[in-house]
Write a structure and sequence with these properties.
The complex is a heterotrimer.
Chain A lengths: L4 E10 L2 E11 L4 E6 L5 H8 L7 E6 L2 E2 L5 H7 L1 E4 L11 H12 L13 H13 L15 H12 L6 E5 L7 H17 L3 E5 L3 H7 L2 E6 L2 E6 L1 H5 L2 H8 L7 H9 L1
Parallel strand pairs in A: 3-8, 3-9, 6-7, 7-8
Antiparallel strand pairs in A: 1-2, 1-4, 4-5, 9-10
Helix pairs in contact in A: 3-4, 3-5, 5-6
Chain B lengths: L1 H31 L6 H21 L5 H30 L4 H23 L8 H5 L2 E4 L2 E4 H22 L2 H11 L1 H6 L4 H23 L9 H16 L4 H21 L4 H15 L14
Antiparallel strand pairs in B: 1-2
Chain C lengths: L3 H16 L5 H25 L8 H18 L4 H23 L4 H21 L9 E2 L13 H27 L6 H6 L1 H6 L4 H27 L1 E2 L6 H14 L6 H19 L4 H15 L3 H12 L1
Antiparallel strand pairs in C: 1-2
Helix pairs in contact in C: 1-6, 2-6, 2-9, 2-10, 2-11, 3-4, 3-5, 3-9, 4-9, 6-9, 10-11
The chains are: A alpha/beta, B mainly alpha, C mainly alpha.
Chain lengths: 262, 298, 311
């Protein structure tokens, strides 16, 4: 089976700054891949490059064997690669339900789909069902600008996958969320996404989260990948400990919390 | 050859006029990010005010030389009063709102001031030709050029130098430039942006009134003055770039020469060419030829 | 359950037709002008919701008017419906070309570029002897599929066509705004990048809106020309564009009905002011605008909605 996503010698420079260099990764379909690294190591640059927000200086990106290196974010989204944002990008002046409805409305296939009325009964039901699945249905009529951060993140992610993509990149899905809520959110998201056989790439700072949910981990440092493998291996790798994690994970109180949510 | 020379002179005279009118608008936009439609009203008030003052002056039988001081006085008074009232009374309430909203606010003010003008001066025409006539003409080759017009070129030059010097060589001017580049950063550096705004606006208003005052002797001062001027001033600022003295100069010269060329060679395109250049510049370099600001564009 | 707005539009249309039998000629004329202007405002409303203000709708308004006038003068075309379609299509084509560039801009640059294009047309019209220059051109009385009314019957006929155009335009725009693509107005205004990441080209949507607004303004221009019987370059001047923007703000953008109510009120107040205090009309308008912008950003319609919500 060909890998769903391949990246060959990807590099990006901004003048004299090298944000990414020599990244070569192959991701098989259905994998859940955790991306770790200190701030400025190049994780978000990596996501931006794959999703077309930045054009690489060198290298190629292949999605299902198709070269997507020069495509725009819009085209890449249409092909089936979606992303969520570190700072949730929603539409603040309309309701949560409307946000979801728009995402679904756009995802509808068929000629002239965009010209059909947005709020058809079917679509509103589908939007409501997704909000239920992400456990934010209570907020359906609230304006997106009034949402607590966790709900906003979930909405952002729900919108990102509305088009039923084959890959989703989650940029720090639990950043800015309280410790208690982090696991809840990941359970909901990963549960919902894995059910559809999606390939998931997620950027995370919280190593416990990475350990719990990732099949495989990429560790970034200084714009390139310094370790690539199963969580156990990578999180205990010497280089990773030095440049990313800081020291060995402390499996103390946190483990209790993780067990409680298991 | 004569035509080329005529185009050059006419172009420079028109450019000088444009520069004096547009520099105030450009500064206000550069510093405060406000596209001030009411600038047309400052111009109109300046023209009417100068015409009235000059009329009174000559009725009192005073020597011609002082008339210029009277015009300058009119401009300063009007700029300070109108500009001050507007800035403190109204604009302060809308700082920070969307640029287009602020533009609409200034447009509303412009409308109000246009009628205030009518209420004060009525629909009659006013003339203040004395200073213009008094300076006589200069004969260059086969061309007769009004000395007043040449004076305008000199005045524009002086204004440009004054503005440049004021911005780049004085401490206050450098503060202005800082605010032009980055308002937020300037605040964090301790610059009193509110005061900077107030002073800039008044200076811009004075410059606008100044343009009107020194144009008055060349024209008949009638209602509707401001309406025509503001849109041309916009074109100059759009072409040259906001907040830049060099930009306002280049924009004025480009528009001035284009118009003069059109008038002499192909009169049908006289107005069309100005706005075509404006559209062209906006299309390729929306922030204008000399601005360092970034345009909002995808 | 048919859409409530559409029902309301039909009711207003029926009332407008009925009342034409009893209205004096000057009132019929005034309402015609108001409805024609409301067509332009409908287009501005779509753009305003998307966070864009066009200061150049006079380009299409003028283009529509002159298309009708020149078709009458050069082709002898006087059928009002044909002229309407011609004007709207001509304006839409111009909007399509202009939109190729305009759709890439936002905020103040969108406003200034749209202004520049309309002033280009003005510049051409004012200096062109063939097109009547500043005097403009007179328009022959309109005919309606063979029927050639004159006098009061002409005024009423143009009026009926105008309110019919209003009904059609408002209904089409309403349906458009309910569709997925029409619902992208607020999203594009709020977060354009997100729209791109959902798979839609914001630029393409804005381009479409520019064309729709252009067509509407063109139709408005034709109808105004037929009602007034005369076209001149002032139709393309920047103050004309400004007038349209004012009505948009004053009326509010909450519903397709708002432009019509707002425009009618505007014309009524203007006629009154021009008759009794012509040198204070702009003052009143400016003051009304300031009050609206500062205290009632949703315009007249928001007041209307608030009262209904409380009832």
């Amino acid at each position: 089976m060909a890998p769903i996503l391949e990246v060959h010698e990807l590099g990006k420079t901004f003048g004299s700054i090298t944000a990414a260099r020599d990244i070569t990764v192959a991701v098989p379909a259905g994998q859940t891949l955790g991306i770790i690294g200190a701030n400025g190591a190049g994780k978000t640059t990596f996501v931006n490059l794959i999703t077309g927000y930045l054009k690489p200086s060198t290298g190629r990106i292949l999605f299902e064997r198709r070269d997507i290196t020069d495509l725009s974010p819009r085209e890449i989204t249409r092909l089936g690669v979606c992303r969520s944002f570190q700072v949730p990008q929603v539409f603040p002046t309309i309701s949560v339900l409307d946000n979801m409805a728009i995402a679904l409305g756009i995802a509808r296939r068929g000629a002239g789909a965009l010209w059909r009325p947005l709020r058809s009964r079917r679509l509103v039901e589908d939007a409501g069902a997704i909000l239920e699945r992400y456990r934010i249905a209570d907020y359906r009529d609230a304006l997106a600008s009034t949402l607590p951060q966790g709900v906003r993140k979930l909405l952002d992610i729900a919108m990102a996958v509305a088009a039923e993509p084959r890959i989703v990149l989650l940029d720090e899905p639990t950043s800015g969320i309280s410790v208690e809520e982090k696991y809840e959110i990941m359970e909901v998201v990963v549960g919902a996404l894995r059910a559809s056989g999606l390939t998931i790439l997620f950027v995370e700072h919280d190593m416990e989260i990475v350990e719990r949910y990732a099949d495989r981990v990429l560790a970034f440092y200084d714009g390139t990948v310094i370790a690539d493998g199963p969580p156990d291996e990578v999180l205990h790798d010497e280089k990773v400990k030095q440049f990313v994690v800081g020291e060995t994970l402390h499996r103390t109180a946190r483990q209790g919390a993780a067990a409680a949510h298991a | 050859m004569l035509t080329a020379f005529a185009i050059l002179i006419d172009g420079l005279v028109y450019a000088s006029w444009l520069f004096i009118v547009a520099i105030g608008l450009s500064l206000i936009f550069g510093v405060m990010k406000i596209l001030n439609v009411a600038h047309g009203a400052f111009y109109a008030f300046g023209a009417y005010g100068a015409a009235t003052l000059v009329g009174l002056y000559f009725e009192a039988g005073l020597p011609v030389a002082g008339a210029f001081a009277a015009m300058l006085l009119a401009a300063v008074l009007i700029g300070v009063i109108l500009g001050g009232i507007l800035e403190r009374g109204l604009l302060r309430r809308v700082y920070g709102r969307d640029e287009v909203i602020v533009l609409l606010v200034t447009y509303a003010v412009f409308l109000i001031l246009e009628d205030v003008l009518l209420l004060i001066w009525g629909a009659d025409s006013y003339f203040a030709y004395q200073p213009y006539v008094a300076l006589g003409n200069v004969v260059v080759g086969e061309m007769i050029i009004s000395t007043y017009d040449l004076g305008l070129i000199a005045l524009a030059g002086l204004t440009a130098i004054g503005a440049w010097w004021g911005l780049n060589r004085t401490r206050s001017g450098k503060l202005l430039i800082a605010v032009i580049h980055d308002r937020e950063m300037s605040t964090t550096l301790g610059i009193n942006v509110t005061a900077v705004f107030a002073i800039t606006f008044v200076i811009g208003a004075v410059l606008g009134a100044f343009g009107g005052a020194f144009t008055a002797p060349k024209i008949s001062v009638t209602p509707g003055l401001g309406v025509e001027v503001i849109v041309i001033a916009f074109a100059v600022v759009a072409i040259g770039g906001m907040g830049s003295v060099a930009g306002a100069l280049i924009g004025s010269v480009i528009v001035g020469l284009c118009r003069a060329a059109a008038v002499h060679l192909l009169p049908e395109v006289e107005l069309f060419v100005i706005y075509a250049v404006m559209a062209l510049v906006l299309a390729f370099r929306p922030q204008g030829l000399f601005s360092r600001a970034e345009a909002r564009k995808i | 359950m048919p859409d409530r707005t559409l029902l309301l539009l039909c009711a207003i249309f029926a009332a407008a037709v009925a009342v034409s039998f009893v209205m004096p000629s000057w009132a019929v004329f005034l309402t015609t002008i108001a409805v024609a202007k409301a067509l332009v405002v409908l287009g501005l409303m779509i753009l305003w919701r998307t966070g864009l203000v066009s200061f150049g709708q006079a380009l299409y308004f003028g283009a529509g008017g002159y298309a009708a006038g020149l078709a009458g003068r050069w082709l002898g075309l006087t059928d009002a419906i044909a002229l309407c379609l011609l004007g709207a299509i001509a304006a839409a084509l111009i909007a399509w070309v202009v939109g190729l560039l305009l759709a890439r801009y936002r905020e103040i640059f969108f406003a200034m570029l749209s202004l520049a294009f309309s002033m280009i047309l003005y510049g051409v019209l004012v200096k062109s002897e063939a097109l009547g220059s500043t005097d403009g051109i007179n328009i022959a009385s309109a005919t309606f599929l063979g029927y050639a009314p004159s006098g009061p019957a002409q005024v009423v006929s143009v009026y009926l066509l105008t309110v019919l155009a209003g009904l059609i335009a408002a209904s089409v725009v309403h349906v458009f705004l309910q569709s997925t693509i029409g619902q992208l107005t607020a999203p594009i205004r709020d977060n354009e990048i997100r729209v791109e990441y959902l798979g839609v080209s914001a630029r393409a949507v804005v381009h479409l809106e520019v064309v729709i607004a252009g067509a509407l303004a063109g139709a408005g221009g034709v109808l105004t020309a037929l009602a007034v019987g005369h076209i001149d370059p002032e139709m393309a001047y920047w103050t004309t564009s400004g007038g349209f923007v004012f009505v948009t703000i004053l009326a509010g953008t909450g519903s397709v009905i708002a432009p019509f109510l707002g425009s009618l009120l505007f014309e009524m107040v203007r006629s009154f002011a021009m008759a009794y205090a012509p040198e204070t009309w702009q003052l009143m308008l400016g003051a009304a605008l300031l009050v609206t912008i500062l205290f009632f950003p949703g315009g007249l319609w928001s007041l209307f909605e608030r009262r209904r919500a409380r009832a």
